[in-house]
Amino acid sequence: MKSLCVALDSRIKTVEDRMLKLQDVTEGVDIAIAQVTSRVEHMEKERTDFRDDLSYLKAQPMRNNHIFTGVSENNTTENETPEVMEKKLREHLHSALTIQKEVADTMKFERVHRT
Known about the structure:
The protein is mostly helical. It is built from three helices and no strands. The protein folds into two domains: about 1-65; about 65-115, no CATH class. Helices cover about 70% and strands about 0% of the residues.
């Protein structure tokens, strides 16, 4: 009877140890789940921000499109370079729109071309 009680106590101790280990593992998993959930929420917010930025960047170049008419065309080679067109545009801004030459020369253009 005494050896049966000792064996039973040993078995109970083993089961309790296993339960404590399982509780520790469960707590660790709960913490990991909370961290993953937080990270997913952060990534979803970043994705939304990136989508907003992408929409802005797509719209931005459209805002800055300007069309100028009356710029002289002397295109005998039929392949006027963007640099030549930009120079003509700067001259046109100075002469036709009376923008100071220094200001016209310092303006930044992303792309200059004819249509």
